[in-house]
Amino acid sequence: MTTENPAPAGDNGESEKTDAPATEQTVPEDEKKGNVPYARFAEVLGQRKAAEETLKTVVEELVNDLPAEFRPLVPDLPPAVKLAWIRQARDAGLFIKAPAAPELDTKRPGGKPPADLSKLNATQLLSAGYKQ
Known about the structure:
It is a single chain. The chain is mostly helical. It has a domain of 63 residues. It contains four helices and no strands. Helix 2 packs parallel to helix 3. The longest helix is centred in the middle third of the chain and has 28 residues. The protein is rod-shaped and about 120 Å long. The relative contact order is 0.05. The model has no long low-confidence stretch (mean pLDDT 77).
């Protein structure tokens, strides 16, 4: 009977046995590296697209609620930035219609009452006409 001495680990390139349980679950290679599984990525991407579409709809409704003469003033920006711009412009009073100015009477500037010309002679009437 010959007795063999066990070779120390690393002498012949073999590694020592580990006491790992036999029912070890294998982890996919992409999860070992810290990558996100494609199914989760697709789910998050779908949620993001749905949120962007909802935001676009809200911004379009806000633009349609503006008076027609102010709609060309809204710049072409991404939806989130456009929403912030509309809110800021509305708070600053950009989209408020100014009250209509009273119609001016061009025949009576300044609202002065007309002069009584019935008691003037011809020379006075001519001189009054030249003063105006």
